[in-house]
Design a protein that fits this description.
- The protein is of the alpha/beta class and about 350 residues long.
- The chain folds into two domains: about 5-125 and about 305-335, NAD(P)-binding Rossmann-like Domain (Rossmann fold), CATH 3.40.50.720; about 130-305, 2-Layer Sandwich (Dihydrodipicolinate Reductase, domain 2), CATH 3.30.360.
- It has helices at about 15-20, 35-45, 60-65, 80-90, 105-110, 115-120, 130-145, 165-175, 215-220, 235-240, 250, 255-265, 275-280, 305-320, 330-335, and strands at about 5-10, 30-35, 50, 70-75, 95-100, 120-125, 150-160, 180, 185-190, 195-200, 205-210, 225-230, 280-290, 295-300, 325-330, 345-349.
- The protein has a seven-stranded parallel beta sheet with strand order 3-2-1-4-5-6-15, with helices on both faces. A seven-stranded mixed beta sheet has the order 10-11-12-7-13-14-16.
């Protein structure tokens, strides 16, 4: 069926949002995950087919993929799950997209570009927040300033909270420091090395540097060789984090990370429906060139989780309708700077 695809990780917080919204896009996902107890109740509720798949069971995974043309991979942390899925997609000739935000995973998947072209499939990680809106802003700015040498991207959330998956991924990176792109290459920097106040149109917020996926994706999309990514944070928290370098060795230990993971599991799975409806996201970008000229752009959009559900389904629909480019792609690189405007609730500030 042209409207069918495999949604792996459908039992996760964001996976459930995607599954429940799919009918809005006339799509019919086959829900998939590791255990029947977590997948079957959702499949019964939504009257959708489901599959139980262990990512480490190569035969089981490839058999499931042979039924579809596309997989939307929503089970992180992707540093542990992306490789098995992309290799199975290449073996079966199935398009791969995910909602990842990890620089190392983007860089790993980029290495499969030639293999994906040979199989006539598209590999597009990062089809959710924040990559879709930031990638579109990055391309918009590059189009307006073709000679740009530097790009800064920032996002901030108003209200909301973190899902277990997002928090667990972040916990796995704690103590690792930050990253920027300098002269075309990714370099390690302290987390929060830089902080500044940014005007998101109507609201001014403090942001600090973080090692976000755009360090990889925005470079692929625009070719701009110097990129920094920022996120909103309370100034008092930023001041504390400036001393994190002294504790990184401790934060990287399994003992500390396991304590953090236990605390995450004890919290709600993610923001409630009411919290998401009341929250929103703000995105800012700025390019500059060798002459010191600057161009800035802003957008406001839905909360990160709701936006991810919409944008991942929007892109899934495009692919299933034959609208794709083979090989490794980024959202704006493939679908243009106005892709984000197709997502409900997006406004140019």
């Amino acid at each position: 069926m042209q409207n069918q695809f495999l949604l792996y990780g459908a039992n996760g917080y964001t996976g459930k949002l995607i599954a429940k919204l799919a009918a809005t896009y006339s799509l019919q996902p086959i829900l998939a995950g590791r255990t029947e107890t977590s997948i079957k109740p959702l499949a019964d509720e939504l009257q959708l087919a489901y599959r139980i798949i262990d990512l480490d069971n190569k035969e089981q995974l490839e058999n499931a993929l042979s039924e579809v043309k596309l997989v939307l991979h929503a089970a992180g942390p992707y540093v542990y799950t992306a490789k098995q899925m992309i290799q199975a997609c290449l073996q079966t000739g199935v398009h791969y997209i995910d909602i990842n935000g990890d620089i190392s995973v983007f860089e790993m998947l980029k290495k499969y570009d030639v293999a994906a072209k040979e199989k006539n499939i598209m590999v597009m990680p990062g089809v959710g927040f924040d990559v879709v809106p930031t990638d579109c802003i990055a391309l918009q700015l590059k189009n307006k300033m073709p000679d740009a040498t530097h790009l800064k991207l920032a996002f901030a959330s108003i209200g909301g909270g973190l899902s277990h998956g997002t928090a667990t991924t972040m916990a796995g990176k704690i103590g690792e420091g930050g990253a920027v792109r300098e002269n075309g290459k990714i370099g390690r920097k302290p987390l929060g090395q830089k902080g500044m106040w940014v005007s998101f149109g109507k609201k001014k917020m403090f942001v600090m540097t973080i090692p976000w996926g755009d360090i990889s994706t925005a470079y692929t999309t625009t070719g701009i060789s110097n990129i920094e990514t920022y996120t909103g944070i309370a100034p008092k928290v930023y001041r504390i984090l400036k001393f994190q370098w002294a504790f990184n060795w401790l934060l990287r230990t399994n003992f500390v990370r396991n304590i953090i993971r236990k605390k995450i599991k004890a919290r709600p799975a993610g923001p409630s429906d009411e919290q998401r409806q009341k929250s929103s996201s703000l995105v800012w970008g700025e390019t500059s060139n060798a002459s010191g000229e600057k161009i800035t752009a802003w957008i406001s959009c839905l909360d990160g989780y709701t936006l991810t559900a919409h944008s991942s389904l929007l892109i899934s629909k495009k692919i299933l309708e034959g609208n794709f480019k083979t090989g490794y792609q980024t959202p704006a690189g493939c679908y243009g700077e106005n892709l984000i405007m197709e997502v409900p609730g997006t406004k140019i500030i």
